[in-house]
């Protein structure tokens, strides 16, 4: 039975949109940057692992191991974010319609889907981690390090998966500060534990790459505990009783068509990363190391935009449910404005500080030089990529996951991988391969602008003329 409860107005429907985007966006940006810290900090500290009597260039090998394991971590994030996008959009939409019962069921079924994914992730870590790492390299040291790291972060992934699921539920209810606190708390714990566990401080044994994995897992569990408390004891927008966790087909059949394209869209990022590992590996391991360093730097840039995008999706979806076309337009306009400002500033800083950023990592001169090329060239597409992310979020909030998927396919597979393969074979020892990234973003932008404009006009027309819907 549908339950409609009159509650005080949610800020997503009342606060001025420019202020609302800042109010919700800044905590989300900080939260996403906290997520980016996990892998950046791990990469920094493992690059400082000293050589042993039998292994030289240990920093490069450790970064290679994390780079080869990273696509699986990205798949975990991608699937959780895919489920989360549908959850965020549907939850906010139902709250905008004042349908608390349906919103509660959406949240519960999202948790059920994430639990099933957790079981699959644990199984992968137990039985397939070694084969995955070995498919990308024949270096026995990298295989050993990568497998050990990957097994720990997948078998003990309850913190990562649980947090990302509940984060989107809390976010869809308009509470972004809680997600910021949870994510940053875990990041701080990870930063503190990394040097202790990697290098063996405070009387603990030096665990190297394995220590980095345990620091990550412990930080993720801490974030999960915090967000559990917020969702189940402090979230008054929805009903969090256990009965809502039971799967309900009437909800799943609405969620899955949105979740499916969103998952595929998000999973294209690790597919692209895996593909780039293979393409660059045909030249040398130095290129793979450079790619790993570049990706950690650019990840910070895009995580900030993903944070703003998450806030924009919730605001747009809420007001779409409330039939407020004026607020939808403002949300899109100001999200794009803030994105351009942030990414232009970020690009300038990366160009000016490229040498210093690369210098943070203890890698060989050859790898450092190639990483410098990647930052100089690929960062030219940062602003375009940020706009693409916002436009994809608009399509998702307005119910068109397929449009967003098409743009992702172009940006992260159909254009970039063939171009990278071509450029590597044209000039294998140059930095030409990195030009594939901004070119792919430009192609994506052209298509994203067309699809978003079409979807926006359709939705606004339906709001303004409800008799035609």
Question: What attributes characterize this protein structure?
Answer:
disordered N terminus; single chain; 79% helix; 469 residues; mainly alpha; globular
Short account of what is shown:
The chain is 79% helix and 0% strand.
Q: Determine Rg (CA atoms, Å).
A: 22 Å
Number of helices: 16
Give the biggest beta sheet.
none
Low-confidence stretches: 1-7
Backbone shape: globular
End-to-end Cα distance, whole Å, is 24 Å
Percent in helix: over 70%
Proportion in β-strands = under 5%
Structural account:
The longest helix has about 40 residues, at about 60-95. Helix 6 runs antiparallel to helix 7 (about 175-200). The chain starts with 16 loop residues before the first helix and ends in a 5-residue tail after the last helix. The protein is mainly alpha-helical and about 475 residues long. The radius of gyration is 22 Å and the shape is globular. The model is unreliable at about 1-5 (pLDDT under 50). About 80% of the residues lie in helices and about 0% in strands. It is built from 16 helices and no strands.
């Amino acid at each position: 039975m549908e339950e409609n409860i009159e509650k005080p107005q949610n800020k997503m429907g009342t606060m001025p949109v420019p202020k609302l985007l800042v109010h919700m966006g800044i905590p989300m940006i900080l939260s996403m940057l906290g997520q980016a810290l996990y892998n950046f900090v791990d990469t920094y500290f493992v690059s400082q692992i000293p050589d042993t009597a039998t292994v030289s260039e240990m920093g490069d090998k450790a970064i290679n191991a994390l780079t080869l394991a990273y696509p699986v971590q990205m798949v975990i994030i991608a699937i959780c974010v895919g489920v989360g996008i549908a959850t965020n959009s549907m939850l906010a939409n139902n709250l905008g319609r004042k349908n608390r019962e349906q919103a509660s069921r959406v949240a519960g079924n999202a948790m059920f889907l994430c639990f099933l994914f957790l079981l699959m992730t644990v199984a992968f870590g137990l039985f397939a981690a070694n084969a995955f790492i070995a498919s990308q390299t024949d270096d026995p040291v990298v295989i050993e390090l990568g497998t050990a790291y990957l097994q720990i972060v997948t078998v003990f992934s309850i913190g990562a998966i649980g947090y990302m699921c509940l984060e989107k539920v809390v976010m869809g209810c308009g509470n972004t500060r809680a997600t910021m606190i949870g994510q940053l708390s875990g990041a701080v714990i990870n930063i503190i534990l990394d040097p202790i566990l990697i290098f063996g401080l405070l009387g603990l044994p030096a665990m190297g790459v394995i220590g980095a994995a345990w620091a990550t897992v412990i930080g993720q569990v801490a974030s999960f505990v915090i967000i559990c408390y917020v969702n189940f004891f402090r979230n008054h927008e929805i009903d969090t009783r256990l009965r809502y966790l039971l799967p309900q087909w009437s909800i799943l059949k609405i969620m899955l068509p949105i979740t499916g394209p969103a998952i595929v869209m998000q999973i294209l990022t690790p597919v692209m990363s895996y593909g780039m590992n293979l393409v660059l590996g045909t030249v040398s391991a130095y290129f793979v190391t450079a790619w790993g360093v570049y990706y950690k730097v650019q990840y910070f840039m895009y995580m900030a935009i993903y944070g703003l995008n998450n806030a924009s999706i919730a605001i747009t979806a809420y007001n779409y449910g409330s039939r407020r076309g004026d607020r939808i337009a403002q949300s899109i306009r100001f999200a794009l404005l803030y994105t351009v400002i942030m990414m232009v500033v970020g690009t300038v800083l990366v160009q000016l500080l490229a040498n210093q950023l690369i210098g943070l990592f203890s890698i060989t001169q050859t790898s450092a030089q190639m990483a410098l090329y990647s930052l100089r060239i690929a960062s030219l597409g940062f602003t375009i990529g940020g706009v693409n992310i916002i436009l994809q979020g608009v399509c998702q909030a307005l119910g068109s996951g397929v449009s967003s998927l098409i743009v992702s396919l172009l940006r992260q597979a159909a254009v970039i991988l063939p171009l990278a393969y071509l450029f590597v074979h044209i000039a294998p020892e140059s930095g030409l391969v990195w030009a594939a990234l901004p070119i792919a973003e430009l192609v994506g932008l052209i298509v994203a602008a067309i699809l978003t404009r079409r979807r926006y006009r359709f939705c606004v027309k339906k709001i303004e003329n409800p008799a035609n819907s």
